[in-house]
Amino acid sequence: xxxxxPVQLFHMEEKRKQYRRGSFFLKxxxxxxxxxxxxxxxxxxxxxxxxxxxxxxxxxxxxxxxLGYTGILSFGHGMFFGMGAYCMAFFMxxxxxxxxxxxxxxxxxxxxxxxxxxxxxxxxTLRVKAIFFAMITLAIAELAIxxxxxxxxxxxxxxxxxxxxxxxxxxxxxxxxxxxxxxxxKVITYYFILFSCTALFMAMLRFTHSPLGxxxxxxxxxxxxxxxxxxxxxxxxxxSITFGCVMAALIGGLYAMWMEYVNPESSLxxxxxxxxxxxMVIIGxxxxxxxxxxxxxxxxxxxxxxxxxxxxxKDLFPDAVLLHNILERWLxxxxxxxxxxxxxxxxxxxxxxxxxxxxxxxxx
Length: 364
What we know:
By secondary structure, the protein is mainly α. The protein is built from 18 helices and four strands.
């Protein structure tokens, strides 16, 4: 039997170490926390917040494959998220009925249509670089919103499409009580979304850590050098865009399952979806994937609880009118928090932490 090479020995040692690091136990602890959310915090507001963090954490990770790992800025990524949501609404409500078969068809259609459209867009527009490519994708995303709004006979227009989930995912379904919590269809849907997003996240991790992912990072760092080494950068970039957009469409289908409602603004909106995704990836850190969870948690928690501070202040300090006026403009507080995060974590939370840990290792 041939002896392992030094490179193979290094990778074997790294694999052994990764299961003994604190970051590994932190990830396990985070997964356990999400598993226990319906039992620790059974209110719908908290469970809904957890679902939003899970879904948008995975969506930001899919966008990070384009921006953080390949260096491609696209403003049309949210369009594929909305495409997945509409595919689910079409098969489960508008042109079908709630059933497991239609549920599977909704996900399959989302993946196929998103893959075809993403491949066509990449083949037609990737010749244009940097900000010009971003502007083209923004125009396509705006066109999608206009079509979804105007073609009301197909998409329901601004009224959107409401539908019901099948079987065990239905709101009316109940398995009875377990540990004092009623296991309803919403609870089962929560766990289905959690396990599905975890599986998609693991697939994205495998994609970025594969040899293909290494080539994408080389293209991001220096496209000319990567091409000089014999890599067909155009093909690799097309694969990255297609894979990331397919992931986004599948996540959009999961989002529609939870909301059971789709309309242009909530699923396709550039300002409502794409802007949030950009803020999340900046906060969490580009090129990390895990940063999407941090960014989604920060944004969704602040959007959920900052508006409640005004009511809390009125109860605790009824005469503090100035404080009430400040807290009423909670977006100002959010802006201050965002600026502080950018100042203290210039590479995002995960990116800055990794950079500081690397500096400490080199100093020691």
